[in-house]
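Hey there, shall we discuss this one?
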Amino acid sequence: MKGDVRESERAAARRLEERALNASGAFQSLVYDGWLLGYRPGPTKRLRCVNPFYASALPLDEKIEHCVGFYAAAKLPAIFRLLPFSEPPVLDAWLERAGWAAFERTLVLRAELADRPSSARDGVEILDAVAWMPLVAPLLGTSAEALPPAIERTRSYPLPHAGAVIRRDGEVLACGLLKLEDHHAGLFAVTTAPDWRGRGLGRAVVSALLAEAQRRGAAIAYLQVTADNASALSLYRRFNFSASYEYWYRARAGDQR
């Protein structure tokens, strides 16, 4: 029975990761013997790395060599993202022995969205995601070159989504993004301008996004946060988020970026 429970938990974690990749717009990827090879340039590592989600058949050393060559051709660092359900199970140990160092441990947090009365949004605006994108570009550090394709990806995204902002005198001080799939709500890009941190703006954005998620029928919320981000973890604990599982990256020297 214990083995069945564990397998059920692994399957649930894998499905949550699929939702997160869908929400992140993981369209630039290839499937290689059960592994998803993401190759979208940019700061989001999980979209430009190997996600070893499904069962493998080819020899492991052959697959690693193929991935190294693939990322070299794409002019991207070769990075693996290791999860509780990575396939094959020996992959993490194999990479460690071969000198691929672990970095950036990340927690996947999950919370049940209990019924609660409507509350004021504390100055938070809920916007169409396409309209949200150019407003938050300066806060998120999105360059002028990267903004048009980001807007186009947002416009063509096939699932429900919405953005949140707090503005003062026209300036966006805090923001967040909500993406929904089959009663699950993912929270992304929750950010507060450095000079305005510690004033409850992030808490207001998260509260408004969760309320919007409930309004749209979501029952579970999830998000990802690096394990050393103490302030973010403290914020999310206020909303009863708890760790569901974790993942980490592995790369060779010089490629940990």
About this structure: Confidence is low (pLDDT under 50) at residues 1-5. The chain is about 35% helix and 30% strand. The chain has two domains: 2-107+247-251, 114-218. The two ends are 41 Å apart (CA to CA).
